[in-house]
Recover the amino acids of this structure.
């Protein structure tokens, strides 16, 4: 139930020689679900620790509502964390849920009522008397989430909470987290390297670069259709976005071995501008017959995914792109390719999105 | 170009049967994928072929020649493991060159061969790095380069992509495909990922609990899984399994799952009235629509319960009566309308019927 703002946050573990995270500005609105997504080593966990107070950032400030909490120790922040490997105490499930209330001055009955409320949300009612440490990872993680909820923490941070859970129960835990966030309106921040988890859980997703910078903060539609950086285009989706170098020439994009015409207003830049054109494999149109405005490519490899979906690797001179097709095309055959204008993305030579 | 033949191979480790009477022929120049869950015996099988492990029973032949008692270095096999085992004190170049040095090749030839494979694997720029300076992807490329530089007769890959980030996997998978194309040798590749198996291999060998369950061209196996458990491993999101009973209503025969999920099997002779069967439907066989259809596809009313967004695909978990049905959809752009869709369509030739006991594949609803 708390807004969190990170303002100009940078952190270095070695006195400024290298930066784990750099110039991060993020605002998390109260009651919403967020995901912090990036490859391993991108500084996601550092950010999480900065929010909960385990690390004081080298630069920048952290605000909860309008209060500057940068100097607050973790226990003053009322933030709950759910870790990758669920921690439970060697007690019953009920005792585990009650544990965070030990020093809270309410009657025992009230505590038990609260525990039961949380247990029903997490569907733990049936196993309240069982020893928690004997349960499997999914149940232990539900208990850990329960302990985070019972404290009434305003912010719940989840650090790769799915990675130790049995594969066949991941769905249940993800759904549970989303349902809880909808019904209880707690601010939840979910840290993960897995795009599926991030895109499924986050109403908004912060995508980090491998070097600890924030590349984009937006909902799925924005990240998928309008990646702010070529890295985001490639990182989101499987396979990732095709990136092809081109030069803008009046009403054409010149790819070297071929040109395609483009409306001037789509990209109002000077003739001669060098750029990278991005298009997702699923948006590349492929035909086996010659069509108007289509460019001939040779089929070099086909990865048949075994479920009515193939990844075609297509080549024209030195340009190789991927395209998705339901049909498997023969190797060395010609595929006629079109890049629909609406699906084109443009990046400058440093990888930043243009416009 | 070598044919591998295993005859009655068994292996017991600490009183446990790891491989149970394996009979297997891998054709010369085939790319065969060993697909199965962790603990199925994949690694042990590869090690027995490489010669680093001895079978307790059975014989191994390369091109008809019995190699069971040959040590690994005499078998001419290149093996890539899941873990990136490199010599830590040597550069990437020296790591790749090491098998050639053992063969005492002239320096100029070593240099030429190392440069060639480095080019193939896009690691020319890291040849002077030490392994600890490499990323996971670079280290695994180096391991692959070292395995292929001596151009062995047989290539064995033990889950080489498993420990890598999924984006590195995406890139390296394609490079492996290029390499398999280029070497034109016999390749045996193990994985627990059906998508990787389909993308890379020609022939499937499905292994479970130390036994070979099914072999054949990959797509044929996926379409016609040996049993319901095989179907589970042939799709990255599993398979929908429903228990059903064959009931007669008027003059027609139905496989009845629940009040909304029932399939007309009047024309399926093999299915007998009063008996129970399992129905299996792959999540990718099902499409979602707003309205019920009039055409030949089978229409199932559903309620969307949960949508998982994988970036380029959605896993849609739906409720169909009291049963759960999972659907794999490529329509990420329709993410926001998916939850309002009420009908699922399945082509009858993609609804698989399995026996109730044993889960053996019988046939599809319509051939």
């Amino acid at each position: 139930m708390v807004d969190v703002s990170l303002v100009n946050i940078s952190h270095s573990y070695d006195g400024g020689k290298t930066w784990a995270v750099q110039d991060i500005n993020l605002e998390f609105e109260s009651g919403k679900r967020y995901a912090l997504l990036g490859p391993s080593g991108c500084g996601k966990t550092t950010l999480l620790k900065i929010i909960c107070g385990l690390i004081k950032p080298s630069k920048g400030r952290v605000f909860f509502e309008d209060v500057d909490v940068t100097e607050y120790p973790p226990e003053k922040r009322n933030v709950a964390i759910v870790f990758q490997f669920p921690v439970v105490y060697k007690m019953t499930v009920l005792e585990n849920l009650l544990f965070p209330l030990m020093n809270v001055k309410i009657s025992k009955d009230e505590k038990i009522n609260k525990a039961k409320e949380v247990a029903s949300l997490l569907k733990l009612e049936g196993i309240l008397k069982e020893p928690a440490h004997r349960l499997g990872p999914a149940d232990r993680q539900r208990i850990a989430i329960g302990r985070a909820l019972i404290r009434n923490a305003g912010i719940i941070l989840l650090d790769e909470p799915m990675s130790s859970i049995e594969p066949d129960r991941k769905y249940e835990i993800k759904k549970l987290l989303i349902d809880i966030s909808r019904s209880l309106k707690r601010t939840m921040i979910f840290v993960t390297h897995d795009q599926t988890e991030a895109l499924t859980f986050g109403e908004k997703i912060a995508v980090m670069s491998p070097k600890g910078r924030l590349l984009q903060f937006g909902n799925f539609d924005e990240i998928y259709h309008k990646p702010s950086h070529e890295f985001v285009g490639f990182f989101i989706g499987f396979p990732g976005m095709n990136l092809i170098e081109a030069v803008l020439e009046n009403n054409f994009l010149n790819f070297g071995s071929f040109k395609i015409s483009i409306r001037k207003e789509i990209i109002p830049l000077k003739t001669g501008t060098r750029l990278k054109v991005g298009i997702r494999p699923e948006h590349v149109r492929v035909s086996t017959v010659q069509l108007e405005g289509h460019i001939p490519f040779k089929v070099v490899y086909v990865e048949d995914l075994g479920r009515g979906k193939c990844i075609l690797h297509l080549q024209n001179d030195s340009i190789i792109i991927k395209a998705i097709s339901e049909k498997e095309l023969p190797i060395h055959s010609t595929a006629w390719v079109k890049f629909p204008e609406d699906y084109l993305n443009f990046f400058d030579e440093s990888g930043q999105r243009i416009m | 170009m070598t044919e591998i033949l295993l005859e009655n191979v068994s292996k017991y480790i600490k009183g446990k049967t790891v491989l149970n009477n394996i009979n297997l022929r891998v054709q010369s120049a085939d790319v065969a994928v060993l697909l199965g869950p962790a603990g199925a015996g994949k690694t042990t099988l590869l090690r027995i072929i490489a010669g680093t492990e001895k079978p307790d029973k059975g014989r191994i032949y390369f091109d008809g020649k019995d190699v069971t008692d040959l040590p690994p270095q005499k078998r001419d096999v290149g093996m890539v493991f899941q873990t990136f085992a490199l010599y830590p004190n040597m550069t990437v170049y020296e790591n790749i060159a090491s098998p050639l040095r053992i063969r005492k090749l002239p320096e100029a030839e070593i240099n030429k061969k190392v440069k060639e494979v480095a080019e193939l694997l896009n690691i020319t720029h890291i040849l002077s790095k030490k392994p600890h300076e490499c990323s996971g992807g670079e280290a695994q490329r180096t391991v692959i380069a070292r395995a292929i530089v001596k151009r062995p007769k047989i290539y064995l890959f033990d889950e080489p992509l498993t420990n890598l980030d999924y984006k590195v996997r995406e890139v390296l998978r394609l490079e492996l495909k290029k390499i398999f194309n280029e070497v034109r040798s016999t390749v045996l590749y193990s994985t627990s990922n059906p998508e990787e198996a389909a993308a890379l291999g020609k022939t499937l060998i499905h292994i479970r609990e130390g036994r070979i369950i099914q072999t054949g061209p990959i797509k044929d196996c996926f379409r016609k899984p040996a049993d319901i458990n095989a179907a589970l491993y042939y799709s990255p999101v599993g398979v929908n399994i429903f228990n059903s009973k064959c009931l007669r209503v008027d003059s027609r025969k139905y496989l009845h799952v629940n009040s909304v999920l029932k399939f007309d099997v009047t024309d399926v002779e093999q299915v007998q009235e009063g008996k129970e069967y399992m129905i299996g439907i792959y999540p990718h066989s099902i499409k979602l629509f707003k309205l019920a259809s009039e055409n030949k596809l089978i229409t199932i009313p559903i309620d969307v319960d949960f949508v998982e967004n994988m970036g380029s695909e959605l896993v849609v978990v739906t409720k169909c009566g009291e049963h759960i049905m999972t659907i794999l959809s490529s329509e990420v752009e329709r993410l926001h309308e998916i939850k309002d869709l009420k009908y699922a369509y399945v082509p009858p030739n993609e609804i698989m019927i399995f026996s109730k006991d044993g889960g053996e594949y019988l046939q599809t609803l319509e051939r």
Summary: DSSP finds eight helices and 20 strands in chain A. The domain at 242-347 of chain A is CATH 2.40.50.140 (OB fold (Dihydrolipoamide Acetyltransferase, E2P)). Chain A has a mean pLDDT of 93. The longest helix of chain A spans residues 170-184.
